[in-house]
Design goal:
5-stranded antiparallel sheet, 13 helices, globular, 2 domains, single chain
Amino acid sequence: MLTTNKVPPRRVVLAYSGGLDTSIILRWLQTHYRAEVICYTADIGQGDDTAQAEKKAYRLGAHEVHIRDLRDEFVSDYVAPMFRANAVYESAYLLGTAIARPLIAKHQIALARSCDADSVAHGATGKGNDQVRFEMAYRALAPEIQVIAPWREWDFTGRESLLEWAQSHQIPIPKDKMGEAPFSVDSNLLHISAEGKVLEDPSRPAPEFVYSRTCAACDAPDRAREIEIEFANGDPCAIDKKSMSARQCLELLNEAGGENAIGRLDLVENRQIGMKSRGVYETPGGTIWLFARRALESLTLDRELVRLRDSLMPQYAAMIYNGLWFSAEREALQTLFDHNQCYVNGLVRVQLYKGSISLLGRESPHSLYSSEYATFEADEVFDQRDAEGFIKINALRLKLAAARQKVQPASALASVSSSDEVVDV
């Protein structure tokens, strides 16, 4: 049976970033509920100083602070499976924020159980997607646990009243947060996103200072960079002949892509709750990874399998976007998408230059491409006369439909006749 926030929590595990909002939530949970608060910070490559976040949490009265390094798990168990499906939301977004939430929630629930906590809390707002993603994961993993969403509970009317409360409760406020921040940022090893404030008018370009992981195309090197990526069972395993983990591959591709202006996206997307929002995303390494994967799949996967996967991909991407990573339907699709990944092995060579990725070549020991069949020169394996019967069989339904057009149904004739009647007035 699901609990509700009507029962005062005794011990809460808070997803804590160390930023201003979750610091305010930490103190609010203590003053509003008189609960013990255990802070949980997931290191998924966002680049924050976790040691400073830990010190700050204890200064604000945290009962315990737990930091989990989830970078390898994030890439190998979440990003890589998602990319095996070639998942892209609304034809553009590589789901950098959405794919991180189920991992964070999973370890938050595990910590809550080990600490005998009766509640979990997050800092997502009531307008966004993340509240859904966190809470769908909580319900899938621990349906009995109580969920506290302060942004849906407290009475603060806006940013100014929130900051006033923070000052009155001795919460340090960085100088650049005195007033409304210019935009909101979320980052991890896969991407960095920005939205709000200076980005709320989609008719205006994003200011250059919004971007932090990629340079502008005009500032990228004048010399192209070539990279060779090796894949094993659908996942990257080596860069320029140096073996490394999927996480290390992504880190290197992030660096190369960022230096060459790869992976910028300005998107107006449809949030799950019904409104449109504008997001500016930087996903340099993921953009290269996905581009190279598709090039290798063009060699190694059967045509109909790829068509089936691509027809189902939008539904899979929407599942991740909408917080359904732990659903039975996502897991079923994952099994389908992963089935033939044992053939996605080989090398892909790409060129990065001023915001563009070009394919230089691809090869695989499991290639389905045959130069003997594909050649335009003389060959001994393909009898071109066979194509005539193939065309006739495939055109049969078109031939029958054309013949039918010569005989109009009586109802159609009656309709034409009635429409041609002249009515005297």
